[in-house]
Amino acid sequence: MVTRVATYTNHTLLSDLALRNASRVTDLQNQASSGYKSRNYSGIADSTQRLLNLEGEYTRTEQYLRNTTQAKLGLQSMETAVDSMITIATQMKSLLIQASSIDQGDDVNVKAQARQAMEQVSGLLNTTIDGRYLFAGARTESPAVNIEKMYAPDNYMSGSDVTVTDATTLLSLGVTIGQIQIVSTDIDGNSVTSTVNYDPTTDDIGDLRDAINSVTTNGAIATLRGLGGEGNERLNIENVGNGSITITETGAGNLLSILGMEKMPNPREDVDYYEGDQQILKARVDDQYDVSFGILADNPAFQKLIQGLGIASATDDEDSLVVALRFISDAIDELPNVQGQIGLDIANIERFESRHEDFKVFAAQAISDIETVDVPLTLAELSQHETALQASFISISRASELSLANYLR
Question: For 384, which of 10, 148, 299, 329 is 20 to 30 Å away at the CA?
Fold first, then answer.
């Protein structure tokens, strides 16, 4: 039946309503099948900018959470390593106290135990995560410490009953003219032999030190310092390349015996074992905010533990073991502070982590509210529109059948 002028308006209105209903049915079918309001931004034009903002903030939050997770894992590994060092130090302290006992001293192999402990400490300070050394500062690609440089230098030291200063003359000590031979061997096995002459009629301890130090190729250095940095000054002649040193009297003199020179370790107050840098790591945990975190392997608490173990691993001398015990006791007192600092860093990072986790939940829900539909409700609405669409088609069909003849019947 051809649409007439009289029925054109009604036909057009019914057709328009039916087409809009059909479009809505199609949209609802797509939403019900996909769970999303639209397959493109134009379908949610009124919420597009807010969605884009939320998606950008959500992505940044995920990156911040990755940063905090990585930093926290590193700090937790550090915390565990320090806890292990406290255990090692406590065990070594007990061994040293046991070794000083008359009844039990012979049953304790302090040197072997100290060397084993040093290897454990070296491994802990070279702890890695994903190939990154945690205690090395920003030089995460290289080990933080070199175990060969952790032990006290090979060293000869004058006796505790001999008082010396740079101004002490050799004559006043009863030294006779002679010479000593110093053989220094580096860690690669290369040795250098040097001879130092001394004359008690003209030389004092300062002159003797200068003579040893002026022979720059002998790999040895002479200093005046107390055992472990404490007590009366003693003459120390030590290897400077973490190798070995041997000193013998080659002339007719008696310098070594008069000074009571004995081979025993006397650690310098340095951190030559540390091979990292001084840069503290940072993690970006929020917009325009970085958190500094981490501990370096040259921390004084680690240094004292290493010095104590270095002494105990090289001598049975009672005076030296007393100094080793003092260093280790000091380390036991200070290591919990290091552990506490790491704990504070973890707590600081966790505050940001918690904040970002909360925002991530909020943002995910907000994004879901903009993008997705409630499928059961959508199906119910779809059913209503499908019913209305069918009714529209019936109305259009019946309207097209209207005629004067049909009306008169």
Answer: 10
| Contact yes or no for 82/342 (Cβ under 8 A) | yes
User: Which of 267, 211, 259, 215 minimizes the C-alpha distance to 238?
Assistant: 267
Contact of 245 with 182, CB cutoff 8 Å: yes
Query: Which fold is adopted by the domain 55-151+272-360?
Result: f41 fragment of flagellin, N-terminal domain (1.20.1330)
Q: Alpha helix (H) ranges present in 148-299?
A: 170-173, 205-214, 255-259
Please check whether residue 58 is in contact with residue 364, taking contact to mean a CB–CB distance below 8 angstroms.
yes
pLDDT of residue 122: 97
Of 252, 334, 402, 295, whose CA–CA distance to 86 is shortest?
334
Could you say which DSSP state residue 4 is in? P
- Both tokens assigned to 257: 């015996």
| Low-confidence spans in the chain with pLDDT less than 70 | 1-46, 102-107, 216-218, 369, 371-386, 388-409
**Residue type, position 379, single letter:** L
pLDDT given at position 326: 94
**Residue tagged 């409630």 (tokens):** 374
Residue 4 confidence (pLDDT): 47
Residue 223's pLDDT is 93
Give the whole-angstrom CA distance, residue 38 versus residue 262.
Answer: 87
CA separation for the pair 38, 27 (Å, rounded)? 8
The pair of structure tokens assigned to 383 is 């059913």
Instruction: Say if CB 224 and CB 209 are below 8 A apart.
Output: yes
Any residues with CB less than 8 A from the CB of 190 and at least 6 apart, and which?
none
Strands 234-239 and 155-157, bridge-based pairing: antiparallel
Token pair recorded at residue 161? 């009953």
Q: Are 210 and 223 in contact (CB under 8 A)?
A: no
Output the pLDDT for position 155.
92
- Which tokens go with 46? 């009124």
Give the separation between CA 19 and CA 377, rounded to whole angstroms.
22
d(CA 227, CA 236): 9
